[in-house]
Amino acid sequence: MRIEAYNQIGQVYAPKKTYGTTKTNSVSRMDQVQISSIGKDIQTVKQAVANAPDIRENITAPIKTRVQNGTYDVSTDDFASKLLSAYGM
Q: Measured between alpha carbons, how far is 28 from 63 in angstroms, rounded to an integer?
């Protein structure tokens, strides 16, 4: 059995040792983010929509009152024509 060959193979696969210290020039870079004016506008609109109420009370309150009082009347002719126009008939 040849022990010398085993030692040579072990040297090939052994981790490399570095002696001494080496200094590298390290440049500190910081990432930057720039948002375009369109992106800022989109953020403003998203915030405005998020702050807007889901239901427009000035439109729904009178209809709700008329329904509760029983005075809300829907014209069947108007309803049918709008239904047919919505489906392209």
A: 64
